[in-house]
Amino acid sequence: MSDEFIIEDSIKIIKSDETFYNPAQEINRNLTKLVLKTYFKSVKEPIIFLAMEASGLRGILLHKELNDAKICINDILPEAVEMIKSNLKLNDIKEYKFVENKFNFDENRIYISQQDCVSLMINNSRCFNAIDIDPFGSSNVFIAAAINAVKNGGLLCFTCTDRGSLHTFVGKCFVKYDTKIKCNFDESEMGLRVLLSYISRTAAKYDCSIEPLISLDVDYYLRVFVKVKRGSGNNSKKQNSFFYFCNCKNRKESNTKNNLCEVCGEQMDFYGPFWNKNLQNSEFISSVLNELTETGENKRLIGMLKCMKQEIRIPFTYNLHDFGKVFKFEGIKLKKLMSVLYNSEYQVSLVHHSANSFKTNAPYKIIIDICRAIINKDSSKYNLNKNEEIENLFKVNYYRGLFKSNIGPGKILNK
């Protein structure tokens, strides 16, 4: 950053009291750029709506990377719109069209509007190939309008910075997302499954279904990229489930015959609904990684994408620290536990949002039994040897040390 300008990826924006810029969101901006570039590789003149742009940085980045895309830049604040115009000029973008209410597209590539984004999306039904909603707070109040405004097969990109509402504060989660959660049951994944469930159920009201391509939990926010399919609203019934959760961290889907925990014997309580399908599309992530290596190495983003690519579909994660708290297990290594689970023919994977968590389709009773076998070095029931597949999984460089930026939310200004 210079004294007068903020520079990111060769794009310059003016630094002033009206400039909202957060370095922690750079990975969000870079990932969004790569996702849209990959998704629309074979689409001619995709129309992309940026609902609340503030400085215009993201719009200018997309204009640079997506050669024929039509970028619709909106913000409700007049000072933000003036800043967007100034930053366009600063980056030698002189041609744009100002839109009052309805978008009518011509040879221009940049369109600017100063409207409430919900009203704008309602008035432009099935207009956009992609919509980016990146507020400070929750995206929940924008989801219905975005589904109305996106084309069949289009892409919705949502950010939520209210992580506490998604996995900690039970009342807020129920009010905002219509889901009953257990406080801090699975901080690693619950928020993403709550958010995707809400998007899925909202989409069903418009006879639409969703397919997540990438679901990210990083720093202080969640970010999801979902494909929207029209005429398939009934799919929502299969995409969401209720679960029984127990204080010992056991969990079961609601079709269980009883709600007693077979591990600790306690009564399990009923929670949900949660998204029960994939969080990630591995094939799409591979395509994004190909774009990333072509445009220069970003170790943090590459590591996250590699980790997300290998995540299995099974809902929710387990954390080694929880085993220590609940069962007083100490000294169990994640690689060892995953090796024994894999040796026992269960699926296992790492997760991108926690270095101490993992996913598996093994019953909780088996996981705890294996932990005891590892501690007691008892190989009578389980193969405790190393597993080559798991060894190779841990050899991949995920750049774990770079995952957290330690930069919080807020308005980053020149001081």
UniProtKB/TrEMBL annotation:
InterPro entries: SAM-dependent_MTases_sf (IPR029063), Trm1 (IPR002905), tRNA_met_Trm1_C (IPR042296). The lineage of its organism: Eukaryota, Fungi, Fungi incertae sedis, Microsporidia, Hepatosporidae. The keyword Iron does not apply. Pfam families: TRM. This is tRNA (guanine(26)-N(2))-dimethyltransferase. Its EC number is 2.1.1.216. Keywords: Methyltransferase, RNA-binding, S-adenosyl-L-methionine, Transferase, tRNA processing, tRNA-binding. GO terms for biological process: tRNA N2-guanine methylation. Gene3D superfamilies: N2,N2-dimethylguanosine tRNA methyltransferase, C-terminal domain, Vaccinia Virus protein VP39. Belongs to the class I-like SAM-binding methyltransferase superfamily. Trm1 family. It catalyses: guanosine(26) in tRNA + 2 S-adenosyl-L-methionine = N(2)-dimethylguanosine(26) in tRNA + 2 S-adenosyl-L-homocysteine + 2 H(+). The gene is TRM1. It is an enzyme of class 2 (transferase). GO terms for molecular function: tRNA (guanine(26)-N2)-dimethyltransferase activity; tRNA binding.
